[in-house]
Design brief:
By secondary structure, the protein is of the alpha+beta class. The chain folds into two domains: 2-47, SH3 type barrels (Roll), CATH 2.30.30.730; 50-129, Arc Repressor Mutant, subunit A. It is built from four helices and seven strands. It has helices at residues 61-71, 85-95, 106-121, 129-140; strands spanning 5-8, 15-20, 24-29, 35-39, 44-46, 51-53, 58-60. The strands form two sheets. It has a five-stranded antiparallel β-sheet with strand order 4-3-2-1-5, with no helix packed on it. A two-stranded antiparallel sheet has the order 6-7. The radius of gyration is 16 Å and the shape is globular. The two termini are 20 Å apart.
Length: 141
């Protein structure tokens, strides 16, 4: 699921991959619903390829989102992105207790919360890839 959700440097929000062209991608904004081209020279990254630093390893973003969803009972994040740095770090410590306090910046936490809220607003209810694949397989039968 997160493989088709993209973050594009310089553009606000998240985008859903709609189609691929020769030198571009056609993406749809999750904020506005408008479709636009995203070109190869733009920094485009799939949320499925992002991970957060911890003291021992890296944790895929889908696991962090799933932990947030469980903490918030499927609702939007209970903290605002303009809250104090201390409060943002305390919130992330509830979600991911062993996050690397040196390598995870406040801006990363703000982006994480913003992305989570966008996904929840757009009807994403599960971030567990295995659970999603199981549901897709059941639906196909």
């Amino acid at each position: 699921m997160l493989k088709t959700i993209l973050a594009i440097s310089g553009k606000p929000g998240l985008f859903r991959l709609v189609s691929q062209g020769k030198n571009m991608l056609v993406v749809e904004s999750l904020l506005t619903g408008k479709r636009t081209p995203a070109y190869n020279h733009e920094k485009i990254i799939s949320l499925g390829d992002i991970a957060m630093f911890t003291d021992s390893d890296e944790v895929p973003l889908n696991e962090v989102f799933e932990s947030m969803r469980q903490l918030e009972n499927g609702a939007k994040a209970s903290i605002a992105t303009n809250d104090s740095e201390k409060n943002l770090r305390e919130y992330l410590a509830k979600v991911l207790p062993n996050f690397d306090r040196d390598r995870v910046y406040t801006t990363d936490i703000k982006k994480l919360i913003t992305w989570y809220n966008i996904l929840i607003d757009n009807g994403f209810t599960s971030f567990n890839d295995k659970e999603e694949q199981k549901q897709e397989n059941e639906a196909a039968q």
